Amino acid sequence: MPERESAKKSAQQMLGRRSIVSSVAVIAVLVATWAMQGTAVAQGAAVPNPQERLALGEAQVKQLLLLMDVDKNGKISKKEYMNFMEAEFDRLDKDKSGSLDAKDLTRAVTRTMLVGSLPGGVSGHIPAHGPAPASLRSAPETGQQQGVPHVLADDRWTGHGTGRDDPHYLLAQPWRHGHFPGGFGPGHLWQLAGGSPYRFWFGAYFASVAPYDRSYCGDWNWNGDQIAIYEDPDHIGWHLAYNVRLGTYVHIIYLGA
User: Fold this and answer.
1) Which of 28, 44, 75, 233 has the most neighbouring CB atoms within 10 Å?
2) Does the global pTM surpass 0.90?
3) Do 138 and 96 fall into the same domain?
4) Do both 140 and 250 map to the same domain?
5) Taking the CB of residue 23, how many other CB atoms lie within 10 A of it?
6) Which of 200, 209, 196 is nearest to 76 (CA)?
7) 125 within a domain of the structure (yes/no)
8) Counting runs of H as helices and runs of E as strands, what totals does the chain give?
9) Tell me: the pLDDT tens digits for 13-43?
10) Are 195 and 128 in contact (CB under 8 A)?
């Protein structure tokens, strides 16, 4: 009897783990699909029919797969999948309660819409300087300036107005590996030489993209894109990596040489 009860308990635990993983997968697909539908409504377009919805949903899922595929082998390992979903869960769990509610998931949909639908930067443009401190900005960014963080042709950095207290960029140990020593701005361009958002390298240096920003760099070429590094005037412990090809940028932590 004890052996039977133990086996039954083990089976229930396994079923529970499978249910959690399946639920997370369903949420990922639904978020992509809801984002697509919400974008159409917001822009006044007709809601896609079932066939169109399926095709567009598949396109969104492909974008998710690009973000998860860290080693870029065209497949998603269990480790890659779970690492991505764990990071997304932690990002959405604002109050660190260990659970997500409808408000948290709505936030995920809204952010996916912004990443997928609003304008990016100017390809080939290299900013002459980094962003101004948030405290010195005269006006908040408009809806048309939000979305994927990018730099306009007049060197205005959009998506960087949240200020010093943004919880997504608060570090327990700022500058743990020191400040980036390779030089900042357009006079110091680097070619990405490998890695992924979790850990990448260029020249003799290593860095990692902020967890909150990883969905912004799914289209970066980690083995060839040119970047420039800028100082972050607001978020202590972070630098900004600007992608010259795309005109977009992300927060990074310097990991040493």
Assistant:
1) 28
2) no
3) no
4) yes
5) 10
6) 196
7) no
8) 4, 8
9) 443 443 333 444 444 444 444 444 444 444 4
10) no
